C-alpha cells in the first residue's frame, strides 16, 4: 500500500526534476560518447578533410576542392566495382533472405521433428569467421583437392568451374549466403515468436489454412524484421571485402584489385599510397550506402502504415 | 476445414480442431526440406573436420568428404602449434586479448550508455540519438582507411590498441540494450531505489544489471563474434606478425602456398581453421538460452 503511494509520488516528482536540467544521464552516456567521437566522428571528419586535398609528386599536398570527387565519378574502375557489388546485391540478397524466411517459417510451423537441432545447426556458420569460411569454400572450390574436382572427375568433364569469370560472383554469393542464412533465419524466427497466438486461433476459426496463415499473418508480421535484414544485407554487400580478397589468392586473374569498391579503396591506400583518393572513394561509398539504407527503411515503414 | 461440429462453442471447436490440426502434426516433407538446409550448413564444417585429420599428401590424393590413409589429426595439431616457434599460439593469445578487452569494453560501454538513454532525460539526448543512428549506417570499412591514417600519425599502428580502440564501439549493441532496458527495468523500481537513498550507479550495478542480463549476454556474444572474426581492421593496422590475430595469420599461411617460393602448408591452414572456430562455436552453444531470448526481446521493437 505505502510502497505504491511512494511510487505514485515519485512519478509525480519526475517532471519537476526534468525541468531542473537533469544531467545525471550524461554520467552513463559520456564514456560511450567520448570513444564514439574519437573512433567514429573523428575518422569521418578526417576522411572528409583528406578528400579535399591531393598529394603531388612535386610541391607536397595541395587543396583541390571537389576535384577528387569529380575524379571518382569519372573513374571507370570505381563504376565497374560498384556495378559488380550492385549486381551481387540484387541477386544474392533476395535469394538468401528467401531461404532464411523459408527456414524460419518451417521452424515456426511446429511441424518439424527436432526443431531445436535444426535451429542451432543452420545458425552455426554465422559463428565461423568470414576468413575461415572463405578458406573452407576456397578449398572446396579448388581443383587440387576440392569437392569440385571430385564432382568434375565423376562427371568426366569440367562442369563446375567456381573460379571462372562467369561463376566467381556466384561462388562468392554462395559463401556469403552460407555465412548469414542462419543468422537472418533467427532474426525472422524471433520476430515470428512474438506474434500473439490468439491471432492464429482467430484465423483458424475463420478456416484459414496453413498457407493462408503464412501469407496473410506471418509474412506481414515480419515486415519490420525483413526491412532490417535487408538493410544490413545491403550494407554488407557494399562492404564486400573478406571473401573476394581471400579468393583472390586462388584466382588472381579473375578477381582484380578493384573487384569491389572496398578492395579498390584498400589497394589504392596500401598498394598505391593514394590516401586522399582512397578516402574519397570510401566517403562516396559511405554516402551511397547510407542513402540506399535510408530509402529502404522509408519504403518499408511507409508500406507498414498503409 | 477441420471444423465439423458446428454446434459446439468456438473454443471447443478450436480445441477439437487442434487435435486434428495439420499444424500440430509433424510433417515429414518439411523435415526433409529442413534437413537439406542443415546439410548445406554443416557439410563445409564436416569437410573441415575430416580434412584436419589428413596429411598434406592425403589432402591431394583422397576424396574430400572421407578420411585419408593416415589419421594425422594429432600430428597436425602439434605441427600447427609449433610451426615457426609457435606463432599460432601467439596469434591465439592476441585474439583472446582483443576479444576480452575489445568485446568486453564494447559491451560495458554499450550497456551503460543504452541504459542511460532508456532511463534518463538529459539535455542533448536527442542529438545523441541522431548522431548514433546516423553512425549505424556508416559502413565500418569506410572508416578503416582514415582511422589507419589517424593512428599512424599518433604512432598507434602496429600496437594492440589499433585493434582494441575501434572495437570498443557497438552502435547496434547500444540500440539493443536501449530497447531491452525499456521493458526489462521498471522505472518504478528505480524511483523506489532512489527513495531508499541508493546512488544511480549503485542502483545500476546492484539492481538493473541483473534484470538486463539476457540483453547483455546477447550484446557480449555478438561483440565477441565481431572481434574474433575481425579481419579488415587488423589487416590494415598491423604489419608485424607477432600482433596478428588468428584471422590475419591464417590468411597469411594460406597465401604462402602460392607464388614464387611457394611452401604449401594446407594441412596447417585447415587444422588452424578448425582450432579457430572451436572456441567461438562452443561459446554459442553453451550460452544458447541467453542469447536466443535476448535476440527475441530485441526484435520486438524494430
Automatic annotation (TrEMBL), chain A:
Question: Mind telling me which PROSITE patterns this protein's record contains?
Answer: ABC_TM1
* Gene3D superfamilies in UniProt: MetI-like
Q: Which domain of life is it from?
A: Bacteria
The UniProt transmembrane annotation reads 26-50, 85-105, 117-140, 221-241, 275-296
Q: How does it sit in the membrane?
A: Multi-pass membrane protein
Q: Where in the cell is it found?
A: Cell membrane
Keyword annotations for this protein?
Answer: Cell membrane, Membrane, Transmembrane, Transmembrane helix, Transport
Cellular component, GO annotation: plasma membrane
Task: Name the GO terms of the biological process aspect.
Answer: transmembrane transport
ABC transmembrane type-1 domain mapped to chain residues: 82-296
Main subcellular location of this protein, as a coarse class? membrane
Tell me one Pfam family matched here.
BPD_transp_1
Q: Does the keyword Zinc apply?
A: no
InterPro entries to which the protein is assigned, alphabetical:
ABC_transporter_permease, MetI-like, MetI-like_sf
Family affiliation: Belongs to the binding-protein-dependent transport system permease family.
Q: By what name is this protein known?
A: Sugar ABC transporter permease
UniProtKB/TrEMBL annotation, chain B:
Q: Which InterPro entries match?
A: MetI-like, MetI-like_sf
Q: Which species is listed as the source?
A: Lacisediminihabitans profunda
User: Which compartment or compartments is the protein found in?
Assistant: Cell membrane
Q: Write the protein's name.
A: Carbohydrate ABC transporter permease
Statement: the UniProt record of this protein carries the keyword Cell membrane: yes
GO CC annotations, alphabetized: plasma membrane
Q: Per the record's keyword annotation, is Cell membrane included, yes or no?
A: yes
From the UniProt record, give one GO term of the biological process aspect: transmembrane transport
Which positions fall inside the ABC transmembrane type-1 domain? 92-287
> What topology does it adopt in the membrane?
Multi-pass membrane protein
Q: Which UniProt keywords apply?
A: Cell membrane, Membrane, Transmembrane, Transmembrane helix, Transport
Similarity annotation: Belongs to the binding-protein-dependent transport system permease family.
List all membrane-crossing ranges.
Answer: 28-50, 96-115, 127-149, 161-182, 203-228, 265-287
Check the record and name the Pfam families matching this protein.
BPD_transp_1
Query: Which PROSITE patterns does this chain map to?
Result: ABC_TM1
